[in-house]
Amino acid sequence: MTPEDQEETQPLLRPPDSAPRGRRVFLAAFAAALGPLSFGFALGYSSPAIPSLRRAASPAPRLDNNAASWFGAIVTLGAAAGGVLGGWLVDRAGRKLSLLLCTVPFVTGFAVITAAQEVWMLFGGRLLTGLACGIASLVAPVYISEIAYPEVRGLLGSCVQLMVVTGILLAYLAGWVLEWRWLAVLGCAPPTFMLLLMCYMPETPRFLLTQHKRQEAMAAAQFLWGSEQGWGEPPVGAEHQGFHLAQLRHAGIYKPFVIGISLMAFQQLSGINAVMFYAETIFEEAKFKDSSLASVIVGTIQVLFTALAALIMDRAGRRLLLAFSGVVMVFSTSAFGAYFRLTQGGPSNSSHVDLLAPISMEPTNASVGLAWLAVGSMCLFTAGFALGWGPIPWLLMSEIFPLHVKGVATGVCVLTNWLMAFLVTKEFSSLMVSIDLSPMPPFTVSREALCRITLIAKDSGSAALCVG
Hints:
With 468 residues, this protein is an all-alpha fold. It has 2 domains: 21-201, MFS general substrate transporter like domains (Growth Hormone, Chain: A), CATH 1.20.1250.20; 247-468, MFS general substrate transporter like domains (Growth Hormone, Chain: A). It has helices at 3-9, 24-54, 65-92, 95-114, 119-147, 150-177, 180-187, 189-198, 205-210, 214-225, 251-269, 272-277, 279-285, 291-316, 318-342, 366-387, 392-399, 406-436, 444-467. The longest helix is centred in the first third of the chain and has 31 residues, at 24-54. The protein is globular and about 65 Å long.
């Protein structure tokens, strides 16, 4: 290990073992986590909104198949730009100010959608909310990790992904009873609440110390942790040294880069955002009587298993959870593909049934069993994703990069993630139309891809653990 590496591993903040722990750190973490909650709501918004917009009557904007695919996917283009902007803001404007600034495109974007009279206004609003999503997805984890003391850092860090899936579930639940305009109005609430709370929260002591603002850092430590005693100055050389392309020749730099980018790309190639963005549309294509209810069930499962992953991640290990998660997703997409194959025969095989009806009422009705096969396979897919491929790539991204390249490296990873998300979500609708015209059942392509991704993920996870 080089002297520079040794300097980077020294903590900027060194609390004594006997230091009291303040509870306001949880309030600050909750305030920052409202960013991921807003981010999740923006992602989940398209699922109930697209069917509503397809049925909209003039003068309201109406989406055809092509416009619907852009409505779902354009948010990821904005998020890709937001990831780059967030990487720049987090080191220059600070963590707190970056979170405050991201509330502006969140609220503005949903306001534009609410007032939309043309399709281009819908796209503009989604692009703005996507920009905010990209900033929040990068800055919120950094803020939370830097304000948390070691005993609660894992717990608070895992809340980021939990808040994202909670936001998605809230969008599904609200979309069950609200039409698209009122749903956009509701989307303004979480970022507004975050803006109000974050105004009373401090900047992270770590960032303040790197800016040589010792008194402000001590005040922030006092507010967050209940004590300003024992917190040391940053070691010499702890400031960001900047990133240069020549550094990619070093294994300690290029290996984390390859691992981080690969994990982000494979996370999106699993197809999770296609499922989350178009959940209601997918179940409508599957001829469900209540596609909104099916979407809510899937969202609830994702929240529960994300919470479970937070509890078992440190015990089970990253590599095991990645491999297990990939296997579960392969099995579930295979089952959903089989469901579409079984329902291709025509109206007699339709699953147009009420999910709330007891399964035992008509044991001879095969359509009821097929309906639950579809819901079960999608629930299994989201559960498998939530256990591994959902939280772990983001967690590893924050663990494997040296300090002096972390800003650039995390920005590149976030950019990769959102560009791949755009590719998947934009082409999903076209792929569904193409598959409907062929004998191949939907999700066969995704199933085959996941078989390969799972094998690569095992190697990537192993390498990540070695580098970290």
